[in-house]
Amino acid sequence: MDVVWFLVLSAFIFVIGAAGVLTRRNPLVVLLCLELMLNAGNLALVAFARMHGGHAGQVFALIVMVIAACEVVIGLGIIVAMYRNRLPIDVDEMSELRG
Amino acid sequence: MWFEQVLFFLAGIGALAGALGVVVLRNPFYSVLALVTHLLALAVLFLLLNAEFIAAAQVVVYAGAVMVLYIFVVAYIGGLDEPLRPEGGLVNVVGPLFAAAIGVELCIAFIASGLSALDTRGADLGADFGSPGEIGQLLLTRFLVPFEAASYLLLMAAVGAVVLARRRRGLEEVEIGALEEVGAPPGRREPPPETTLEVRV
After folding, report:
1. In CATH, what is the architecture of A3-84?
2. Could you say which of 3.20.20.70, 3.30.2000.10, 1.20.120.1200, 3.10.20.30 is the CATH number of the domain covering B1-81+127-142?
3. Considering only residues 101 to 140 of chain B, which have any Cβ-Cβ distance to chain A shorter than 8 Å?
4. A62: chain B residues, CB-CB within 8 Å
5. All structural domains of chain A with their residue ranges
6. What is the pLDDT of residue B19?
7. Run of H or E including B141
8. Chain centre distance of CA B19
9. What is the pLDDT of residue B188?
10. B22, A76: Cβ pair inside 8 Å?
């Protein structure tokens, strides 16, 4: 397979994720769409690593997975805190930093 | 050769369908399940790109551990079906248009970039390209500093999640009790936090 196929596929996945982040209101689903965008980036990184025959892209993809896990943990912590404080689970309502 | 192409298109369709499911489905629980499908299809794509260790980590860490975390939180909060955005606001129209613009731009950038290597299968690879041994050796030699930084980042995220999601009210009761034991003047005592919370409700 040509590398460009993988890159176009990763572009499509990134676009779907971006559309979800822009249009959905539930913060859980927004986090899921962020995961989609990070995974699209990972696919492009691994495709470029395959193209150049080097390992740096794969290690970078691993680090991106670690960052994604951290982001998920913090985001879910914030959502649980919102739920505990009986705030609306909606990104449009949560427009102030001061909860 | 043809087997590889068939596998690519099957996995690509699976990944795209999973991604669309995440965005389109109304119930967050189904969105999480669609994301699991997407991640498994992506692991197949990583295998096609000779990234065996990344594929294994994707299945074990992502589709296994992180998704379980999501499912726990969805079950805790309750899978509330979110209503459609009322009276079709501006964001509902502009958002997909904006995303489509990014997509067209990215495709133009990839296809018209003129990189001759994009149209080939890529460099020739050794037999153990992307194997756990190779990646592990790189992580402990050339990429040691990012590896350690990632481990510190994970530690900070774990501590931060505990701090964010703990029960604040219980802690404040303890503090007020401690103040009473010390004998603080009653005028300086702060009002209990429930009042501010109930205004929000």
Report:
1. Orthogonal Bundle (1.10)
2. 1.20.120.1200
3. 102-103, 106-107, 110-111, 117-125, 129-130, 134-135, 138-139
4. 53-54, 57, 135, 139
5. 3-84
6. 94
7. none
8. 13
9. 47
10. no
Which residues 53-72 of B are in CB contact (within 8 Å) with A?
53-54, 57-58, 61-62, 65-66, 69-70
- Name residues whose C-beta falls within 8 Å of residue B44's C-beta, 6 or more positions apart in sequence: B7, B10, B11, B14, B55
The answer to whether B106 touches A37, Cβ cutoff 8 Å, is: no
Taking the C-alpha atoms of residue B171 and residue B192, their distance in angstroms, rounded to an integer, is 12
- Beta-strand ranges (E) seen in chain A are none
- In tens digits, chain A (99 residues) has pLDDT values of 788 889 889 999 999 999 999 888 888 899 999 999 999 999 999 998 888 888 899 999 999 999 999 999 999 988 888 888 777 777 777 777 664
Distance from CA of A22 to the nearest CA of B (A): 5
For chain A, say whether B87 makes contact (Cβ under 8 Å): no
Number of Cβ within 10 Å of residue B117's Cβ equals 14
A53 and B CB contact within 8 Å: yes
Q: Name which of B67, B83, B86 is nearest B29 in CA terms.
A: B67
pLDDT at B198: 44
Which of B35, B150, B201 has the CB atom closest to A35's CB atom?
B35
